[in-house]
Amino acid sequence: MSDVERVHDLDVPRDASFAPLELARRLQATWQPPPGLMGWLCSIDHKSIGKRYMVTAFAHLLMAGLLAMVIRVQLAGSDMQLLDPDLYNQVFTMHGTVMMFLFAVPMVEGVMMYLVPLMVGTRIIAFPRLNAFSYWVYLSGGVMIWVAFFLNVGPDAGWFSYPPLAGPEYGAGKRSDIYAQMITFTEVAALAVAIELIVTILKLRAPGMTLMRMPLFVWASLVTSFMIVFSMPSVVIASTLLILDRLIGTHFYNPAEGGDVMLWQHLFWYFAHPEVYIIFLPAVGLASHIVETFSRRPTFGYPAIVLALIGNALLSFGLWVHHMYATGLPRLGNSFFAASSMTIAIPTGIVVFCWLATIASGRLVFRTPMLWIIAFFVLFVIGGLSGVMLASVPIDLQLTDTYFVTAHIHFVLVGGAVAPLIGALYLWFPKMTGRMLDERLGIVQWALFVSGGFVSFGGMVLLGISGMTRRVYTYPPSMQWDTLNLITSLAGWAIGLSFLLLLVNILWSLRAPVRAPANPWTASGLEWLTTSPPPIYNFPLIPHVSSRTPLWDDPSGSEVVTGLRVDQREILVTTTAEAEPDMRDPVPDPSLWPLIAAIVTTIVLMGSIFTPQAIVWGALPFAAVLVAWLYPRKVLAATPAEIDQAKEARS
Amino acid sequence: MRLVAITVLLVLGGCSRNPSVLLDHAGPHAAWTGWLFWVFFVVTAVVWTVVLAMLGLALTRGHSRSRLGLPPEMTPASDRRLGAWVATGVALSVLILTGLVGASYAVDRELIGLDRNTSRSIEITARQWWWEIRYLDGDPNNQFTTANELHVAVGERVKLSLKSNDVIHSLWLPNIAGKRDIIPGQENSLVIRVDRAGTWNGRCSEFCGYQHAFMGLTLIAQPPDEFQAWLATQRQPAPEPAGEEEKRGMQVFLTGPCAMCHNIRGSGTGYSSYAPDLTHLKSRSSIAAGAAPNTKGHLGGWIIDPHGLKPGVHMPVNLQNAGDFQALLAYLESLR
Amino acid sequence: MWWRTVMVVSCLVIVGAALAFFREERSLRPTVAAEAMRRDAATLSTLVAGQAAPPAAENTRYEKSGYDLSEGKRLYRWFNCNGCHANGGGDIGPALMDDKWIYGADARNIYQTIVEGRPNGMPSFRNKIPEAQIWQIAGYVRSMSGLTPFYSRPSRNDDLQAAPPETMAPRQPPKLVAPEPQR
Hints:
heterotrimer; B: alpha+beta; Immunoglobulin-like; 3 domains; 5-stranded mixed beta sheet; 9 helices; C: mainly alpha; Cytochrome Bc1 Complex, Chain D, domain 2; two-stranded parallel sheet; elongated
């Protein structure tokens, strides 16, 4: 293959010139990765990478959930000796850290990168090699933290690891370094995914899908991606400063040398509050699709929901201080953040009311995904309202750092994010695998989940009011927290059982043959147009969209756009606002370089836990890998004369 | 509603005297906050019930349309009706939130007012994992240091200056006032007033390492004259050892590992503040930051095997021969 | 099928997670009997400079643990070692962060120095510092000149910086020297 191959675009095979079967065969040949293990390692398909993200995140969920079960054994009664404080501190830190950084955020990223290209009707995500790189980096971050945990080097200063406890003097060993570098791994991955999604959503939508015709989940993904871009750098800086303090003795968090321990808290919460919305908003998008699909009508108040999503995103950057009321900040500042924290209930309320209107005016079909909307209402609304209570400065000063806060975050994230995610799993599982999940088992699982969640987190609310502080490895009987804790633990194990049922359901369903139809739920989005599971090129012909619910208005997807080449990987780029066809763009081939780059990154980041030299010397191989990755193999080029010709032809 | 909630809590807690935050307040700060909490609690409970009822209605309505085979309602008229419902819901939310913000601000204002005109200053240094308490006084001779047990006079406004030399802690006296973080490099303070005599529990509420769970602080509110008497006792140096046993115990204390970290005023130890001041050890109700009652047996067990009670604590295993150990215990028991 | 592989791997990791609870732990609670035995061994033996009576295993055990070294660093200050040795740079006591050793650089030598004391001002801490803590301090003293493994060394304290953090200390091969004449 020559380095530069000048392509004259005139007499090449295009999608319009083939019958459907022949077209499918040719597209398959063009798009499929090399066979075997090598192909698996090289894959840059957004669906495989998305599934890997989801499976990995689910494994993290199960393992961190197992830790939660252990925590609940330890706390089930007073003076329990199952774990000593050293192990308990690692266990609760791992539970929180893994759930927030390695389950929740990557899970929504996986769902977004799987669904968004299908929903906007394109063949692949933008920058697919970067996507593969992000997965490998995320995987190594996850493996690193679990291996460290097995070796008794698990992080032990809580999921928000405040220095000085996590700093060089009081965080002995390499535990907090592992934590800080794990953050770096996941943030690198998250930033990459966010950039890909923004470009995919803004530039690769099917023709006709104007911004206001985008599915709500795509809107949620766009908003979330921007939030990632604006919030994650803050925590990357925070964790880098921590590493520097710990490794080479800088003084960013050392008050004696002019540093400030509060710097960490501001940087961290400036990230971590939006992070909750990074997890929550995509879940809202997913829930909107469930509501729409089973109400059999377009979501009521679509523009209001879109604005509410954007409002949520903007407001979420303005309330991080409510995590820090007790730190002695000026009272006036606290008051400002109290008001802004309560304000965020309003956009969330708009979304909830619009769903209610959609359901009430719809023609409701009761299927299992719909149950998870009920779970959302039961659990998340408590979470949101307890958040309103915590937004009030005087109440927060009493309840912060107690189990009330633990209950709040669990109601919000389990009710507001995990429940819609499971509902979405029931809804999109047939699309991803070609198999339906068992809906009856789903009802049992749902019942365990909702009752377990309500009682368990409700118990935590009462424990918080009874004064039980967070992160205690045990408590004396004189505190009289035994009964409530036992109830909380029993209900907590019910949630664990619910996830076990979900796992059984998934594994059981995967044994069945592929037989789900393309659109089993009669849903409205473009992703249901293609087969279940979708072919590697997603759509044989790029659909044209003329409404917000394309498949309800045109179930056969007869409107298509043609002209893409079939002998090369090519996607259609459209304009940002109106989604008019703009140009055709080549897509890179599957490649091993993202994996190699991720391995080099892993070595550099892990080496930097031990010596700063790792960064210096690691930069060299990394630069070499980047050159290899980006080295132009084949360039589609046109001479200036050809470009002029094309412009004349267009005008 | 409040009664119901209290009953529920008491039944679930299965107890008579719950060391609870919001039910049993002994000072104006906690009282105001408790009142505000119940306002929020009732309002949010009602909102939750209403939202769930609306969900139930919506589900029934949508489902009945599907049972009857009717199409979804999507006429402009029905959309306007739905829009009105949504707008009402949002407007009500705004109204409720505004009310709650107002209530919160009002209480906050009251609390700020309570912070003025303090009549006593006490310096509390939080350490891993105990509290050093220093009673400040204009006359340096009247200053003294104690640990883990805070005495105040009933009705007096006391300013607690909070310091940390290691990690971030947070002081929480649930029945008295909200939390205040104790942050190295930053001086925070907390004003408290206790209106009911009695013993109240406090603890560290910001995760601070291995023994965060057992970093307790006992607050004892006394009538003013009793408090003055207590102050007078505490200002005294430790009593001279009376018997032979106690004298031998003091020698064990001074020549063994104890004096490396602990201080007993009047015994000839150096001044070391790394571990609690033991000058009037026996006047305190508990040892090991509230982890065990202050009895001879517990004290002995704590000295021999501190990590059995509090794994990871800085107090090391201390072994003397049996005679020395008994003498040491006898001496410590005499520190009234 | 790739997902089967992933499932199997995940299951293995879950099993590994369960096993994790049986791994080595930090010695938050040295057993009382063991402590008594070590203490007796230490006090009954007659130690002479250069000879090693305490078990050699202690040497490596404490030095490989970042926790023990950071405890040693804490105790170095608590027991006022820096009163004479400063932060390792030396004052009226010899410097500890350089390559010069009068009584040997082995942890057992340092242990002995702390327990027995040395001429020209080093007091004996016999019976004043419990066994385990002496080993922690000895390990920390060695980390000042980079003699402990690179992964376990402590870093800076949250104080004014008096010396570079031990993580950055270059390894200085020990040299035996005669004591300086007393000033």
